[in-house]
UniProtKB/TrEMBL annotation:
This is D-alanyl-D-alanine carboxypeptidase. It comes from Streptomyces galbus. Pfam families: Peptidase_S11. SUPFAM superfamilies: beta-lactamase/transpeptidase-like (SSF56601). PANTHER family: D-ALANYL-D-ALANINE CARBOXYPEPTIDASE, D-ALANYL-D-ALANINE CARBOXYPEPTIDASE DACB. InterPro entries: Beta-lactam/transpept-like (IPR012338), Peptidase_S11 (IPR018044), Peptidase_S11_N (IPR001967). Keywords: Carboxypeptidase, Cell shape, Cell wall biogenesis/degradation, Hydrolase, Peptidoglycan synthesis, Protease, Signal. GO terms for molecular function: carboxypeptidase activity. Belongs to the peptidase S11 family. Residues 13-255 form the Peptidase S11 D-alanyl-D-alanine carboxypeptidase A N-terminal domain.
Length: 278
């Protein structure tokens, strides 16, 4: 009898609920989707570049996807970066870059040029604008299919036009689903990647190394991803996942105070999540 009491009482005493600076946070057990922590988890907020998780998900879900297919970098992608002062993979106009390389450029340095290239490649239509619109449509269709009921995308990269939003719970659900893809898992756990592209003259260009913006990959043992986000409206966001003791915890913090604070928030939630799972 004593042992039974101790076993049921100990977890509640041992694990105190953490405090986070972020406006919203959510953590779940990846194995079964069970909620481990929630703060403002269903509040609709700007997502910043965590949007790119869905960009990658849509690309990796394409039928008969050839990751080695080459995409020629257009001036429009470069102009877009400049016009929006956006995060960039520093892709060079005229270079041929593989879909696989674009996915690394999308998820590690958070390249909005890579996002544009992928949307242009995998959307349908006779004009670039039509293809981009089509791709964003695929993002929203996928969100609905995953039960992300409080999510809407109006951009391929998180630089929204006023109606790009999600919730900490929905983004966690998205990350959990995306992590089922071996290609996605390989990309988001990579700390650094150097692409070799083909120039317009046919020579090989070694790009500057892309470094993953997710600080948890270096600071938190067992981290397997997923994606940072930031912006004037979004503040500082992080969708994260880590594995330990045969268990995987996935979560999201939205609208934290700084790059350092979002990592601190995520670390507290991961520690709490693993403690809850025992």
């Amino acid at each position: 009898m004593f042992a039974t009491v101790a076993l049921t009482a100990a977890p509640a005493q041992a694990v105190s609920t953490p405090t986070i600076a972020a406006k919203a946070g959510f953590v779940m057990n990846n194995a079964n989707g069970a909620q481990l922590y929630a703060k403002g988890a269903t509040t609709k907020l700007s997502t910043g570049s965590t949007t790119k998780i869905m960009t990658a998900k849509v690309v990796l879900s394409q039928p008969n996807l050839n990751l080695d297919a080459k995409v020629t970098i257009q001036k429009a992608y470069s102009d877009y970066i400049v016009a929006n002062n956006a995060s960039s993979a520093r892709l060079i106009v005229g270079d041929k870059v593989t879909v696989r390389q674009l996915l690394y450029g999308l998820m590690l340095p958070s390249g909005c040029d890579a996002a544009y290239a992928l949307a242009d490649k995998f959307g349908s239509g006779t004009t670039r604008a039509a293809r981009v619109k089509s791709f964003i449509g695929k993002m929203n269709t996928t969100a609905r299919s995953l039960g992300m009921t409080s999510t809407h995308f109006d951009s391929f990269d998180g630089i929204g036009n006023g109606s790009n939003y999600s919730t900490a719970k929905d983004l966690t659900k998205l990350a959990s689903n995306a992590l089922k893809s071996a290609n996605f898992r390989a990309i988001v756990k990579t700390k650094a990647y150097t692409a070799k592209t083909i120039t317009r003259t046919g020579s090989t260009r070694t790009m500057g190394t892309w470094t993953n913006t997710n600080a948890l990959l270096s600071s938190y043992s067992g981290t397997i991803g997923v994606k940072t986000g930031s912006g004037p409206e979004a503040k500082y966001c992080l969708v994260f996942a880590a594995t330990g003791g045969g268990k995987t915890v996935v979560g999201t913090v939205l609208a934290s105070a700084s790059t350092t604070q979002r990592a601190t928030d995520a670390t507290r939630l991961l520690n709490y999540g693993f403690a809850r799972l025992g």
